[in-house]
Amino acid sequence: MMEFEKEIDQVINSDQQLSPPIKLVTPNELHRTIMKLSNKKAPGFDLITGEILKHLPRKPVVFLTMLFNAVFRIQYYPKLWKVSQICMTPKDGKPPTDPGSYRPISLLPLLSKVFEKVFLRRLKPILDEEKVIPDHQFGFREEHSTVEQIHRIVEKIRLSLEKKEYCSAAFLDIQQAFDRVWHKGLLFKMKNLVPNSFFMVLKSYLHGRKFQVKIGETTSKLYEIQASVPQGSVLGPVLYSIYTADLPCKDDDVVMATYADDTACLSSNKDPILASQKLQAQLDDIDVWLQKWRIKSSATKSVHVTFTLRKGDCPPVNLGREQLPHKNCVKYLGLRLDRRLTWAEHIKAKKTEANLQYQKLNWLIGRQSPLSLNNKLLVYKCTIKPIWTYGIQLWGSASNSNLEILQRFQNKVLRDISGATWYTRNAEIHEYLGMPTVKEEICSYSSKYQDRLQGHTNKLARDLLMSDPEDTRRLKRWHILSLSDRI
């Protein structure tokens, strides 16, 4: 390991070919960036807010422009912009004497975020041109969402069920992934990925970062940050994607799906032993990579699932020396995937979650509330409806008996919102309120989702619309393109 660190130090400190300077910032560009800032964002230790920057006259904006261009020119990131203030927010119902009862929130100076926005606008075209970020990474990317990543996994499972295969899947838990990014390892990877002018700015950006903890009005002294990408920063997610871009994925038969640090691997075969063997080979490569780049994973918090219509399970798999626990249902990116992909567990969980939210808001949108009908509907659409409509493009292919669970819930809520009598038909309430039914929502969401996939920038997402000529479509209710015909 020491030899590897020496090699990294040599690469980082080695000479690099000259590169064109970074495109300079103009006052107009900086002004447009400032005007897009949110006034609700909490300031850093300097107490400069977005509202303050928006009221700056022309002359200070020109001065900031000169400062940003000086950072590009001399490739030195100001020390004051590297200080993050960690505010400890107490969790509800937790003992205040336990350090684990607090949620740390990192606050950076707002001027540093403005600079990062300007810098990222110049860095992103280089990353896209060189295809640094792999296609299977859907996190922190424009026009990429969790639904599309889950759809890739669902499609792999569905095809396995169609062919009566065993799908052995591992959903990995990476511990404090963003906090464990090794700075030298990140610089080593960026050395040959970005031009020298960008590399030197990023090197200064990562070097010598400090933090202080704030509880109430009390602050600690400054401590140096030895690892991690800056939390709360604009560049942090991009740097993490670069750091994990070389996550091994050698076997084309194994589907790799990553969304930030949420990682899933799936392998299918008619023989459950072969399915787990391919998955185990992939997990072995991942374990070697994690150890090499100093990222820890928790095998006990990871999950191994066998998706199949047949009896029996795939043999267990290990991550390192620890065996992954086997379960019949897993929660990935907010959706619950059960063994036979019936969506029953997911729909029941969402119904329970939505019902709890409705009970909290019953005083506001219930029968006794003096709130107007339009405002009651607005509260329902903004707070309760998004709970159960998330991922509807995928779980909308569930059986009618499962869909009726959510339909009955919506009937009850709309009946209370409108104050309808017991003999009023549910269809009349929906028509009066202008609210679509669950099945109508499925058709609407699915149609828009298909249009979005057709023009998607990622080939892996576009391929989800392509039908397999060898697919018999025996289980049509799992296929998203058959929703409109089925409904």
TrEMBL record:
<protein>
    <recommendedName>
        <fullName>Reverse transcriptase domain-containing protein</fullName>
    </recommendedName>
</protein>
<dbReference type="InterPro" id="IPR000477">
    <property type="entry name" value="RT_dom"/>
</dbReference>
<feature type="domain" description="Reverse transcriptase">
    <location>
        <begin position="70"/>
        <end position="337"/>
    </location>
</feature>
<dbReference type="InterPro" id="IPR052560">
    <property type="entry name" value="RdDP_mobile_element"/>
</dbReference>
<dbReference type="InterPro" id="IPR043502">
    <property type="entry name" value="DNA/RNA_pol_sf"/>
</dbReference>
<dbReference type="Pfam" id="PF00078">
    <property type="entry name" value="RVT_1"/>
</dbReference>
